[in-house]
Specification:
This protein has ten helices and three strands; from the N terminus they run H-H-H-H-H-E-H-E-H-H-E-H-H. The protein is mainly alpha-helical. Strands 1-3-2 form a three-stranded mixed beta sheet, sandwiched between helices. The longest helix has 20 residues. The termini are far apart.
């Protein structure tokens, strides 16, 4: 009972402390640093979540990364007592064998999306995520059943490269007009070189 009361008042204490976090600051902090802010009651889990959701809503229309938003479920969880080393940290699941009870699970399959496949229990990995205190606010796109190295399932459409939207857009533009084989090869070489450069910089050029 005392633990519940402490958690219920954490939002109030964070507000009284006068601490806020901007999106630019949020993206510079890793999960442990965010968890530390919540643990020290400098910020509440709800405040962190709202920053994450605002960023997702701003960027996702261009990227198509989050295909199953879980914002209201996340808000409810952020208001509840949380424990674990990552308590209060916003988190996304991949829509691939990471079942969340009551939430659509498609594995990138159009058939499963049409069937509204919905698990009745969490998968083991999700149970562990929740036990760590993470606040899941959505599920991300995936190749159909994880079978390809690029994320462009018919169920949800392609996910864009967050570092260079033009790579995907160039491919689609190239496909819409007649082209000779050399032009196609030149585009493939440019895209491959860009992907390799991004990979060397540890950036997710391939979003699969």
């Amino acid at each position: 009972m005392r633990e519940t009361c402490r958690d219920a008042s954490s939002d109030t204490r964070a507000a009284q402390a006068g601490r806020t976090i901007s999106e630019s600051e949020y993206v510079q902090l890793d999960a442990m640093a965010l968890a530390a802010l919540v643990r020290r009651r400098e910020l509440s889990a709800s405040e962190l979540l709202e920053v994450a959701i605002a960023r997702a809503e701003r960027l996702n229309p261009r990227l198509n990364a989050i295909v199953i938003p879980m914002y209201e479920l996340a808000r409810e969880r952020a208001r509840s007592p949380l424990g674990g080393p990552l308590a209060g940290v916003p988190f996304l699941l991949k829509d691939l064998y990471q079942d969340y009870a009551g939430v659509l699970a498609t594995s990138g399959s159009r058939a499963l999306r049409r069937a509204r496949a919905t698990p009745t229990r969490h998968s083991e990995i999700v149970e562990r995520d929740l036990a760590a205190g993470l606040v899941v606010f959505g599920k991300t796109n995936t190749p159909e059943f994880g079978a390809k190295g690029i994320t462009e399932p018919e169920a949800w459409g392609p996910t864009r490269n967050p570092w260079n939207l033009a790579i995907r857009l160039a491919a689609r533009a190239e496909a819409r007009r007649p082209r000779s084989p050399p032009a196609s090869f030149r585009w493939q070489a440019r895209a491959t070189a860009a992907d390799r450069s991004a990979f060397r910089q540890r950036r997710p050029a391939c979003s699969g």
